Amino acid sequence: MEAKIGTRNIKSIFFKGIIVFFAFLITVPLIIVLLYIIKQGASQINWRFLSHVPAPVGETGGGIINALVGSFIMVMLAAVVAIPVGMAAGIYLSENPRTRLAYYTGLCVDILQGVPSIVVGIVVYFWLVKPLGTFSALSGSAALAIMMLPIVIRSTEQTLKLLPDSLKEAALSLGVPYHRVILKVIVPCGFAGILSGITLSIARVIGETAPLLFTAFGNPYLSGSITKPMESLPHLIFTYATSPYDDWHNLAWGASFILLVFVLTLNIITKVMTRKWKVQL
Amino acid sequence: MENKRLELSNSQLKWETLFKRILIAMSVLLLLIVLGVFVTLVIESLPSIKALGIGYLWGKVWDPVQNIYGAYPFLLGTLLTSFIALIISIPFSYAIAIYLGEYNPKGWLSDLLKNTVELIAAVPSIIYGFWGLFVLVPLIRTLEIKLGILPYGIGIFTASIILAVMIIPYGASLGITLIRMVPSPLKEGAYALGATRWEVIRSVIMPYTRSGLFAGVLLSLGRALGETMAVTMLIGNTSAIGDSFKNIIFGPSNTMASVIANEFTEADHTEYLSALIELGLVLFLVTVVINLIGKRIITKFTNN
Question: How far is B59 from chain A (nearest CA, A)?
Answer without folding.
Answer: 22
